[in-house]
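I am still getting used to backbone structure tokens and would like to learn alongside you. To get us started, please write out a protein record for me. Start from the sequence, derive the backbone structure tokens from it, and show both lines together. Once you have written the record down, we can walk along the chain together:
***
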Amino acid sequence: MLVNKNLGILKEDEVVVFKLNSGEEVIGKIVSADDEEVKLYRPCCIGGNPQTGQMDLLKWMIMADKDKPVPVLRKAIMGYAPPDTNIAELYESKTSSIVKAPAGIIAT
């Protein structure tokens, strides 16, 4: 558990949605937190997918190395909350290398 006097209790490996001062909402898995910044693993934001025309989770910093945590300055964060269950599942599916079998398939 990571205790930050300015952000409260944040848990390592917890997926959280942050509302930034810019108005953006960013979802990511917490790697670490201190009084200056919160480091997120593969942060994403909501945006339009040009291939499907549907809303989707997109990489928040397009040119950043996807395998390195991205620091978010504490002073840029207005608030945070646990994500909606469906959004958390979407985030996990987009950022995990594990592929889930479709429902009804039994692996042998």
